[in-house]
Amino acid sequence: MTLPAEYSLAGQTAIVASSGGDETPQLAAALAEAGASVFCLARHADALDAIRASVSAVTGGETHGYAGRWDTPESAAAVIDAFTATHDRVDILVNDTRSFFAKPAAEISLHEWDELHARNVRATFMLSQAVGQRMLGQQYGRIVNVISNLAERAVINCSAYSATQAAVLSLTRSFAVEWGRSEIRVNAVGSGWSTAEDIPLETQREELLVRYTPMRRKGHPRDLAAMLVYLCSPHCDYPSGQPVYIDGGANAHP
């Protein structure tokens, strides 16, 4: 990945939080490639190992991390304790807490609704609050929430998931307004239908959703990487509270 010098993250420390999606390892590696020291966070050990391995492949060294939940004040505090054991400052927070869920609206149970919101929304809020307190103290920070373009679109059987993505987008805007005077910029980068695999275009275009997308292919983590690095950089000084959708034009489609 070739980046302008202004996008450098040298000397910056980032926390990258993942619900276990296959895009996060490559996004975390992009931050490391730009010069950031990355602390990895995932709900499960196997997802954490995947992110750490991706980052270590770039840095050639050990990558610290934490496996567990962070959707309560106590669990978010445990994450911060683990982070401060190896780092003394956090400049960047990337929340990629997209646990996908699809079910007809009439069949969604209260437990399913609550668990999905705990994973996707409450976890984003709790970690942003905990990290944001440190950023407020140092009067600097960059927070990027990775969301789905379903934050602003409707798809059959995705009502609960779409509601969580819209909630994270609202949090993005609210934090941007509340923390902007403290030199904290909060933005979102949104993806559409994507894959971390390199699938031939001919194979991709056999899928109806791919044919619906104006670019006629699925997205890939590398499509998001440069924008993510920019939004995390000191050079991103004026944009805040904005969602940037890198979805092959899907959100522009009627």
Task: Name a few traits of the molecule.
single chain, 254 residues, Rossmann fold, 7-stranded parallel β-sheet, 43% helix, 16% strand, globular
Short description:
The mean pLDDT is 92.
Explain what the structure shows.
This protein is an alpha/beta fold and 254 residues long. It has one domain: NAD(P)-binding Rossmann-like Domain (Rossmann fold), CATH 3.40.50. Helix content is 43%, strand content 16%. The chain has eight helices and seven strands, in the order βαβαβαβαβαβαααβ. A seven-stranded parallel beta sheet has the order 3-2-1-4-5-6-7, with helices on both faces. β5, α5 and β6 form a beta-alpha-beta unit. α1 crosses α8 and α4 runs parallel beside α5. The longest helix has 29 residues. It is globular, with a radius of gyration of 17 Å. The protein starts with 12 loop residues before the first strand and ends in an 8-residue tail after the last strand. The mean pLDDT is 92.
The span between the termini is 33 Å
Low-confidence stretches: none
Number of domains: 1
The helicity comes to 40-55%
State the secondary-structure class: alpha/beta
Mean pLDDT, all residues:
92
Estimate the strand proportion: 15-25%
CATH class descriptor name: Alpha Beta
Rg estimate, integer Å:
17 Å
Quick one: biggest sheet?
7 strands, parallel
* CATH fold title: Rossmann fold
Number of strands: 7
CATH superfamily membership, which one? NAD(P)-binding Rossmann-like Domain
N-to-C order of helices and strands: EHEHEHEHEHEHHHE
Rough outline: globular
Going by CATH, the architecture would be: 3-Layer(aba) Sandwich
Put simply, the count of helices is 8
Strand order of the largest sheet: 3-2-1-4-5-6-7
